[in-house]
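Design request, tokens follow.
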């Protein structure tokens, strides 16, 4: 499932970009907005100097390892409006609170989802006695490294672990790994190709192997257009200046969560949730270190997959489209 490994995939690509100090704009340092269950912004959004079109990339613009002295933090809030299910009555909505820390050689992300339900007793995955669940939580750890191979070619690799739970955390951890190559073709054009693997000791996941393929253009632009196409990041961005930009991007949310032992209908089982859509975001740097991002999004793919206590899939429920918004604040140290 792509939602589980998205944090490691995006962090892997982030590591491939130039280190933060080299990429900092003359007056404003770049920060990341949000990740696929967590940071949609990757190396394609890092501002540097003015857009270059003819010269070869300087040494400080070529792919390099993450600055070992860097540290950043991000606090995010999101809300998704109530939506119904395709084939049965009942509605749900949720809010999300997240905290992400980017430490030297380690990324940490925590997410808490609080759900609200309407007509929950009519749902197939409820035993009729109350809401299927009120909150879900996840905690992920990942580390990513970059190894230069040639002047404009490097290898990125990363590993991570994610724990998703309702109440009980036993059997709640999944693991992922990713490896890829980044080629800096010119000062404004990058290509990336790789593969990621996700594994859970107990759950027979629908997807466990993910191809990663993409390109980015004009990633150092502090004014004008830039773009990225591929997986796990696709976006079109316009920078008004060094402090403000507007972007249209694909994004996602969700994860794999271990149900409580006394959970209605699915005792000790698992639920896999994927919300995928597109969003319009505005980013503004308040100071050299502080920034905020405001995002409105439309989720056009919303799916719940249910697994029993032995990890076997037995049911899938599709939900209708939904609107949401996200607000995040970040700081670099």
């Amino acid at each position: 499932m792509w939602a589980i490994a998205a944090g490691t995939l995006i962090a892997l690509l982030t590591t491939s970009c130039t280190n933060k100090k080299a990429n900092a704009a003359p007056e404003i340092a770049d920060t990341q907005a949000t990740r696929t269950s967590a940071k949609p912004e990757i190396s394609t959004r890092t501002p540097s100097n003015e857009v270059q079109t003819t010269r070869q990339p300087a040494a400080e613009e070529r792919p390099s390892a993450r600055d070992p002295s860097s540290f950043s933090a991000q606090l995010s809030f999101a809300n998704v409006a109530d939506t119904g299910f395709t084939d049965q009555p009942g509605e749900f909505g949720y809010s999300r609170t997240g905290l992400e820390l980017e430490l030297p050689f380690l990324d940490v992300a925590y997410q808490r989802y609080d759900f609200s339900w309407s007509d929950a007793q009519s749902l197939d995955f409820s035993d009729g006695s109350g809401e299927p669940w009120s909150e879900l939580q996840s905690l992920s750890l990942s580390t990513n490294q970059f190894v230069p191979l040639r002047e404009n070619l490097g290898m990125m690799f990363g590993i991570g672990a994610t724990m998703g739970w309702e109440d009980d955390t036993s059997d709640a951890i999944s693991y992922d790994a990713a490896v890829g190559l980044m080629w800096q073709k010119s000062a404004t054009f990058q290509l990336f190709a790789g593969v990621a693997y996700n594994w859970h000791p107990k759950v027979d996941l629908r997807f466990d192997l993910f191809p990663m393929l993409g390109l980015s253009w004009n990633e150092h632009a502090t004014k004008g257009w830039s773009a990225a196409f591929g997986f796990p990041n696709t976006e079109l961005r316009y920078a008004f200046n060094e402090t403000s930009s507007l972007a249209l991007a694909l994004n996602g949310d969700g994860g794999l969560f271990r149900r409580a032992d006394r959970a209605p209908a699915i005792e000790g089982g698992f639920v896999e949730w994927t919300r995928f859509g597109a969003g319009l975001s505005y980013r503004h740097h308040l100071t050299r270190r502080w920034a905020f991002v405001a995002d409105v999004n439309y989720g056009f793919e919303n799916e719940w997959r249910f697994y029993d206590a032995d990890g076997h899939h037995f049911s899938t429920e599709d939900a209708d489209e939904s609107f949401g918004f996200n607000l995040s604040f970040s700081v670099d140290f």
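Comment from the thread starter after seeing the answer: thanks! The chain is about 5% helix and 55% strand.
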